[in-house]
Amino acid sequence: MIKSVVTGGCGFIGSHVADRLLAESHEVIIIDNLTTGRLENAEHVKNHPGLRIINADIRDYERIRPYFDGADYVFHLAALADIVPSIQNPRDYFTSNVNGTFNVLECVKNTGLKKLVYAASSSCYGIPDAYPTKEEASIRPEYPYALTKRLGEELVSHWGQLYQVPVISLRLFNVYGPRSRTGGTYGAVFGVFLAQKLAGENYTVVGDGTQTRDFTYVTDVADAFYTAALSEITGEVFNVGSGETCSVNQLIELLGGGKTYIPKRPGEPDCTFADITKIKSLLGWSPKVSFREGVAEVLKNIDYWKNAPVWTPEKIGEATKDWFKYLGKRD
Length: 331
Hints:
It is a single chain. The protein is 37% helix and 16% strand. By secondary structure, the chain is an alpha/beta fold. The protein folds into 2 domains: 3-174 and 217-240, NAD(P)-binding Rossmann-like Domain (Rossmann fold), CATH 3.40.50.720; 176-214 and 243-272 and 288-330, UDP-galactose 4-epimerase, domain 1 (Alpha-Beta Complex). The strands form 4 sheets. It has a 7-stranded parallel sheet, with helices on both faces. The protein has a two-stranded parallel ribbon with strand order 7-10. β5 (115-121), α5 (144-163) and β6 (167-172) form a beta-alpha-beta unit. α1 packs across α7 and α4 (90-108) packs parallel to α5 (144-163). The chain starts with a strand and ends with a helix. The model has no long low-confidence stretch (mean pLDDT 95).
């Protein structure tokens, strides 16, 4: 069987990548420390004969190294996410997203790997000058999460150049869908809104809600990882987006419900919008799920967020104090 390793495979995107690989008859080893990943995300495949789940941290090189032996493909998604905790605890983000990526790359150096696909982040662009944003746009990380994901991308590129590890980095834009994270710190809009919907609360809208995001459905993202892995192309960076950009107000229209406005945050772009010309041209990948279809699918699975924290304006204000404290100084 084809052997694939998925770091962070019990997380939101990683679990969908693992699903795709199992569907394609790969032997899949998930490496996840379960800090933010959840075994529940793999519950539906836990008895699959081709799946192994290893509770390990990518920061522990000696612990993870043996599981990469004989791997054909590696999908590196393990990382710490979210803006505020990266501002508060940059050391944790550096050790996970940079040192952890270094360890994964060392595990696959000189192994005959067919491809390593790295989950990079569109947050590296900061507030872009042009939309849709091309891969050649200026790199301007606004906070430690974005910086550490960018540094991980640089490591991946360097290992590809120097050690001839076949690599591709995918800069992901605003991924949403079933199994997106429910707990932890204040984060992505879908998790916040779905918990508020279940609780019968108003949606907390940043600014006036006209800001737009390139909401990209998670199975399309998993397909991009699979397509990138099987391609003959190496050493490239690709945007992965939906091909469109939708406003927060449009999202609320699809979800249904009232709004409560909260202050606009510094360091956030008014728009995220991927130029996906390159990935369409070189990899032949295109998104398949429209925003309307994706939101409908999320609503079918809304009970997943029943235990998620319900964020109020007061709680958000408290949680984002450091966001305003540090990022606001530059405005």
